[in-house]
Amino acid sequence: MAPIIRTEKLRKVYAVGKERVVALNNVDLSIEKGEFCCIVGQSGSGKSTLVSLIPRLYDAGTGSVCVMGADVRAWPLDQLRHVVATVPQRASLVSGTIRSNLTWRDEAATDEDLWAALDMAQASEFVRNKPQGLDAPVEAGGKNFSGGQRQRLTIARALVGSPQVLIMDDSASALDFKTDAALRRAIRERSVRGAVEGGLPLTTVIVSQRVSTVRDADMICVLDHGSVAGLGTHDELYASCQLYREICQSQLRREELEGQQGSAAPAPAPGAQTAPASVCAKEGC
Predict the structure, then answer these.
(1) In this structure, what is the dihedral angle of CA atoms 98, 102, 107, 112, given to the nearest 10 degrees?
(2) Is residue 91 within 8 Å of 171, Cβ to Cβ?
């Protein structure tokens, strides 16, 4: 069975004035159905460009992006973006109500659907505390909500309509660590439940600057100046990839780092996809 997402020799070049900037350079990446994949790298490494090419927010220069075995250029855009839901870096809400914002992807969604999405996004508590609930007003840009609340509402909106792929482009940065962890746990539970119920598990791709967010991923992709510097689990990359190790060392407490040597990734659930062997393509990793 083909990976649910595959990129091959993916290259994207931007024109900035008279200069040409290589955002991605020959990126090969395979993400299996139901995997929890995180993408990390320094600012300008190509993370947002990579995930924007999956729902075809714009096209690659050369190479290919395939979703469910088909090149994204062959998909009708409305169908592709029903399958692949994207949460942008900047939380974007429109004037109306919570309900009208949540049903943007699926106008036929029921209240039960909306509350299920809010529960997963860790947003149901503050919405229930609104006197109007789902019909509470939303000002243009969501100015009447905090940054964390706006992010949780945009995540909930993406989850309405049961997408098969969820892309979060550094879209939980305003959440505290406890809420961020609860969100990731709820997404994993949704994926397992989807598989048990006979549907497709939710495949999740997260761009994040937080090591605490990415360290329990099934696979981590490290980007460096548009190229893949490493692929593997947290423990594999910490042992083999200098760039990833530097990112960890800049964030994690000393006692956490001392526990890296000899630590083992949790055993996968029966029948779960295992993470690929660590690969580090950059010299010095």
Answers:
(1) -90
(2) yes
